[in-house]
């Protein structure tokens, strides 16, 4: 029985996926040569490829720059008050809205910077917040 179980487990986890995995590995190595990736530990490589999943939201707030706003403006103070009360999943959704990803790039939150700008709408009550994901700019109407 032990031999049967060993052979079955080997088939399920190794033999049955050998061809699809070889195809995947060939494509992956074409775009990401293995020599360059060997300098990373597995945890580091995961962060480089996937980004950070744990965040210091207060550090993120400190890295923000403001355009047509000051940090002391009521709109900005209200924004951060509401933001910090959000549950973790909603904060990640905001990050996805702002940057296109719910993760911070591999270089870390201390280097992730974004801007909050006033879109200078004629009637701010008729304007929704919107984001420029390429440049990490949140346009926040007053």
UniProtKB/TrEMBL annotation:
Short name of one Pfam family = HECT
Report the GO molecular function annotations: ubiquitin protein ligase activity
Organism superkingdom? Eukaryota
Task: Cite the Gene3D superfamilies for this sequence.
Answer: Hect, E3 ligase catalytic domain (3.30.2160.10), Hect, E3 ligase catalytic domains (3.90.1750.10)
Q: Which UniProt keywords apply?
A: Transferase, Ubl conjugation pathway
Is the keyword Transferase assigned to this protein? yes
The reaction(s) catalysed by this protein are: S-ubiquitinyl-[E2 ubiquitin-conjugating enzyme]-L-cysteine + [acceptor protein]-L-lysine = [E2 ubiquitin-conjugating enzyme]-L-cysteine + N(6)-ubiquitinyl-[acceptor protein]-L-lysine
Protein name as catalogued: HECT-type E3 ubiquitin transferase
UniProt-listed Enzyme Commission number(s): 2.3.2.26
Which residues does the entry assign to the active site, renumbered to this chain? 134
Root EC class: transferase
The HECT domain, residue ranges: 1-142
GO BP terms: namely: protein polyubiquitination
* Alphabetical list of PROSITE patterns matching this protein: HECT (PS50237)
